[in-house]
């Protein structure tokens, strides 16, 4: 399938200064994954440490999309930061579960739940200093 048939829409909002909410819509595959990667790299460049990936409007994701999620997860961990997947569609959730990504990257049903996890992580980081 070409990009013209299944364009990817990526919208970034900032619920907090160091948190990027990345809302993805469309098929996340070999043809479109680089677009998502560019948005995430831009947010990393601008100092975002926590990424909330809303995949509620992604009907299909292949290994290219999964690799992007894992790549940003690795980069964010080194900051330290985090990546959270929000409300994946059943097909995307199945890919995340079958590949074990859901064991590594937290999955939340709502943005507020993921923000609470970010807060808890920041508190535990602060107590380790």
UniProtKB/TrEMBL annotation:
**Mind telling me which PROSITE patterns this protein's record contains?**
STAS
**Coiled-coil regions in this chain?**
none
What domain of life does the native source organism fall in?
Bacteria
Q: Name one Pfam family in it.
A: STAS
* SUPFAM superfamilies tied to this protein: SpoIIaa-like
Q: Which residues form the STAS domain?
A: 17-118
**Any one Gene Ontology molecular-function term assigned to this protein's record:** anti-sigma factor antagonist activity
CDD domains listed in its UniProt record: STAS_anti-anti-sigma_factors
UniProt cross-references to InterPro entries, sorted A to Z: Anti-sigma_ant, STAS_dom, STAS_dom_sf
Family under the similarity heading: Belongs to the anti-sigma-factor antagonist family.
Q: What is this protein called?
A: Anti-sigma factor antagonist
């Amino acid at each position: 399938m070409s990009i013209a048939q299944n364009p990817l829409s990526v919208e970034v909002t900032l619920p907090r200064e160091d948190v990027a909410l990345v809302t993805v819509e469309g098929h996340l595959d070999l043809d479109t994954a680089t677009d998502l990667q560019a948005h995430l790299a831009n947010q990393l460049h601008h100092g975002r440490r926590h990424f909330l990936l809303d995949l509620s409007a992604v009907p299909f994701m292949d290994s290219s999309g999964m690799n992007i999620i894992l790549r940003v997860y690795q980069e964010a961990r080194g900051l330290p930061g985090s990546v959270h997947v929000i409300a994946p569609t059943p097909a995307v959730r199945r890919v995340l579960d079958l590949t074990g990504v859901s064991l590594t990257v937290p999955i939340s049903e709502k943005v507020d739940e993921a923000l609470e996890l970010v807060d808890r992580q920041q508190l535990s980081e602060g107590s380790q200093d």
